[in-house]
Design brief:
By secondary structure, the chain is an alpha+beta fold. The chain has a domain of 47 residues. Helix content is 23%, strand content 18%. The chain has two helices and three strands; from the N terminus they run αβαββ. Strands 1-3-2 form a three-stranded antiparallel beta sheet, covered by helices on one side. The chain starts with a helix and ends with a strand.
């Protein structure tokens, strides 16, 4: 009786493993994403979905109806004077010791208007030198 039960459980386990292998689709290479097939069912005009038209023959005009756009007018009598001015910058170098979190050093400087330029230089003591700038 025990051997029959053991054979029955092994058979069920093999059937379940076989079904699991058949359920997963085959892939050419690991990590391949699934195909993007989506069914969109709109049940009213409030559920519109943006559409991108690709590979379509645009030899003929495409009819488009725009609804709900406000009227925009620009007054031609308003003229604002402008001038081109070169922005002057103030620079500072911040030394961050090796192993220290730089956020504690950068937060007070950020409140003063300083920002990191993205340039990092290695210092002689193994730390990092950060170049900061702010408008003058």
């Amino acid at each position: 009786m025990r051997t029959t039960l053991a054979y029955l459980l092994c058979g069920i386990a093999l059937l379940m493993a076989g079904n699991a292998m058949l359920a997963a689709p085959g892939q050419d290479r690991p990590g391949q994403p699934t195909q993007a097939r989506v069914w969109i069912e709109n049940r009213g005009s409030g559920q519109a979905v943006p559409v991108s038209i690709e590979n379509d023959s645009l030899n003929t005009p495409l009819r488009v109806q725009v609804t709900g756009s406000p009227a925009v007018t620009v007054g031609g009598s308003i003229v604002l004077p402008t001038r081109v001015v070169r922005q002057a910058w103030e620079y500072q170098v911040l030394s961050v010791p090796f192993g220290q979190n730089p956020t504690a050093l950068l937060e007070p400087l950020g409140l003063q208007g300083w920002e990191v330029t993205g340039s990092q230089l290695a210092s002689a003591d193994g730390g990092t030198l950060l170049l900061l700038k702010r408008p003058q």
